[in-house]
Design a protein that fits this description.
The chain is α+β, with helices and mostly antiparallel strands. The chain folds into 3 domains: 96 residues, RNA polymerase II/Efflux pump adaptor protein, barrel-sandwich hybrid domain (OB fold (Dihydrolipoamide Acetyltransferase, E2P)); 50 residues, Dihydrolipoamide Transferase; 220 residues, Chloramphenicol acetyltransferase-like domain (Chloramphenicol Acetyltransferase), CATH 3.30.559.10. It is built from 8 helices and 19 strands. Strands 9, 12, 15, 16, 17, 18 and 19 form a 7-stranded mixed sheet that branches. A 4-stranded antiparallel sheet has the order 1-8-6-3, with no helix packed on it. Strand 4 and strand 5 form a beta hairpin. The longest helix is centred in the middle third of the chain and has 16 residues.
Length: 414
């Protein structure tokens, strides 16, 4: 029996990916969970495993192809010890749940000579929708197999017409020959760079950003961190400030749940989340990646330190799994190890807030109790937030509370 391997849903906010490596060849024998394909999305590289045992009979993709969920990747002839196939009725139900197959090429819209929609190659459902909306399918070039017009093509065309009518389509940049003034070198952006840039631009344009700046006295925390670091040195675990910041954030998120929320698709309701999965921005040679550490409130500082080491290493090696880059509720971007005195991070939708941490420094701080100046270790940080959900007073309360938690070591000794 031949089994088609179909690209599954890649996770929240990932609508497509590029094939960076095909790990098998026709004739290869694979087992369930063997890697058959490596994809590169805007967030990370993902290994796609086989879900059955058998022999590769046909490969339908190649490196560089752009894929979307529902695309057929390859075909496998099942071996005798393959997992039992689903009953026909169950298999039919499963297939009906899958998104329609979408070819590798992105939908390209061309205005051509108007004519009858009857000659256009499209499903009855697409034809019916086009008739209801008064759209001539002849003006749309299909991206499906044999130029079939898919529902995605029709939706893209509708969005394009809406953008044109609202004047929201940006003007094309003027091409400039920079070499006329001197020697230049052209360096192609990585896929992660390109798509991250697009998403950040969209987030900046659609979310009303405000940034609250603050600082925290982490003198005592630094002493405790160094003691803990020495204590676990033999376990080869690196204890940085980041796990402490994560724990402190979750404490404040529980007290102020609107910061651990998302607006629904219609921007009419606030979805408050009772779990605390923090996205941690990691700088990699391929661009910024944000792996997610789950259930931070239930883990110790040592647990978080170990997990951060693992996630950071695999992020830089492009070994993160799809589930490890989705489902975040709040993000921390720490540049403390690099430098800077402050910055305004961009909110990572669908989250409503993000914290930016800069390099700590020793400063003279006035002590009202003694009337003297003391040298203290001060960490500057910022909080960017969606002003549709959070107001300035709440943001100031959040940062003040966060700073006070960092001063109380009892929160971190459990």
């Amino acid at each position: 029996m031949i089994k088609e391997v179909i690209l599954p849903d890649l996770g929240e906010g990932i609508d497509g990916a590029e094939v960076s490596e095909v790990s098998v060849s026709v004739g290869d024998i694979v087992e369930s969970d063997d890697t058959i394909l490596v994809l590169e999305s805007d967030k990370a590289s993902m290994e796609i495993p086989a879900d059955v045992n058998g022999s590769i009979t046909e490969i339908l993709v190649s490196a560089g192809d752009e894929l979307k969920p529902g695309h057929i990747l390859m075909k496998i002839e099942l071996s005798g010890d393959a997992p039992k196939e689903k009953a026909p009725v169950e298999e039919k139900i499963q297939k009906e749940k899958l998104p329609p197959r979408i070819e590798r090429t992105e939908p390209k819209l061309h205005l051509e000579d108007l004519g009858s929609s009857n000659t256009a190659f499209a499903s009855p459902g697409v034809r019916r929708l086009a008739r209801e909306l008064g759209i001539n399918l002849q003006v749309i070039k299909g991206s499906g197999q044999k130029n079939r017009i898919t529902k995605n093509d029709l939706n893209s065309y509708i969005k394009l017409q809406m953008a044109i009518s609202s004047g929201s389509i940006p003007s094309q940049k003027q091409e400039i020959d920079f070499s006329q003034w001197g020697e230049v070198e052209v360096q192609k952006l990585t896929r992660i760079n390109r798509i991250t840039g697009q998403r950040l631009q969209q987030a900046w344009q659609t979310i009303p950003h405000v940034t609250q700046f603050d600082s925290a006295d982490i003198t005592d925390l630094d002493i405790y961190r160094k003691k803990l670091k020495t204590k676990v040195a033999e376990q080869d675990i690196k204890v940085t400030f980041l796990p402490f910041l994560m724990k402190a954030v979750t404490i404040v998120l529980k007290e102020m749940p609107e910061f651990n929320s998302s607006l629904d698709h219609a921007d009419q309701n606030l979805v408050l989340k009772n779990y605390y999965h923090l996205g941690i921005a990691v700088d990699t040679p391929f661009g910024l990646t944000v792996p997610v550490v789950r259930d931070v409130d239930q883990k110790s500082i040592i647990d978080l330190s170990s997990e951060l080491m693992d996630l950071s290493s695999r992020a830089r090696g492009k070994k993160l799994k799809p589930d490890e880059i989705r489902g975040g509720t709040f993000t921390i971007s720490s540049l403390g190890g690099i430098g800077g005195t402050g910055f305004s991070p961009i909110v990572n939708p669908p989250e409503v807030a993000i914290m930016g941490v800069s390099r700590s420094a020793w400063k003279q701080v006035y002590d009202k109790a003694t009337g003297e100046f003391k040298t203290r270790f001060i960490m500057p940080f910022s909080l960017s937030y969606d002003h549709r959900v959070i107001d300035g007073a709440s943001a100031a309360t959040f940062t003040s509370r966060f700073a006070s938690v960092l001063c109380d070591l009892s929160y971190f000794k459990n």
